[in-house]
Amino acid sequence: MAALIANPQLFRHAIAIIEPWKHVGCNPLGEEVRASVNVAYLAQKVADCDSILFPYWASGPLDLERLIPVISSGLAIVVEGGDPSVRNPSTFAGASCSHQDLLRLSEQILLSRTPASAPAIFICLGQQLAAQAIVYLSVSSGIAGRSAGGGLAAAPFL
């Protein structure tokens, strides 16, 4: 990360691919599939841009105050999928980052959005994390309240 911060030109024309899990499933041959390889290949062929991979499942949590400005200055942020379920934090066992670490990352990506920042694309598990982060952010900010039945009321997003 220090090399990226010291050389912002490396990142400005690249996409950040965040892997929350080591694979998104297995192919018919039983081989683990890393969707990040496909995203990087498409980015190179379609947009002639590089990709910088952040295997969060292996690296563990990074310093978000340093990471978010770096990845937000690139062309796009892609938060990939994976096998765990956001509804069951125990499915994240075996990774170097926890369910909560990934939720914090998703929250910070969402909160860092500006008209000038990189667009964020959340796929599969990434989308589940983003949805849960939005609910947590809405509840903690008071945007979402309790419905008459006691459950969470829908947050008004404009």
Task: Explain what you see.
- This protein has helices at residues 2-6, 9-12, 35-47, 56-59, 64-72, 99-111, 125-141; strands at 14-19, 50-55, 76-79, 120-122.
- By secondary structure, the protein is an alpha/beta fold.
- Residues 152-158 have low confidence and may be disordered.
- The protein contains seven helices and four strands; from the N terminus they run H-H-E-H-E-H-H-E-H-E-H.
- Helix 6 crosses helix 7.
- Strands 2-1-3-4 form a four-stranded parallel β-sheet, sandwiched between helices.
Defining key terms:
alpha/beta, disordered C terminus, 158 residues, 7 helices, 4 strands
Trace the largest sheet across and list its strands.
2-1-3-4
Q: Main sheet, how many strands, which sense, barrel?
A: 4 strands, parallel
Individual helix count:
7
Radius of gyration: 17 Å
- Based on Cα principal axes, name the global outline: globular
* SS strand fraction: 5-15%
What is the CA-CA span between the terminal residues? Answer: 35 Å
User: What structural class should be given to the helix and strand makeup?
Assistant: alpha/beta
| Total E-strand runs | 4
Short description:
The protein has helices at residues 2-6, 9-12, 35-47, 56-59, 64-72, 99-111, 125-141; strands spanning 14-19, 50-55, 76-79, 120-122. With 158 residues, the protein is an alpha/beta fold.
What is the secondary structure topology, with strand pairs?
Layout: H1 2-6, H2 9-12, E1 14-19, H3 35-47, E2 50-55, H4 56-59, H5 64-72, E3 76-79, H6 99-111, E4 120-122, H7 125-141
Parallel strand pairs: 1-2, 1-3, 3-4
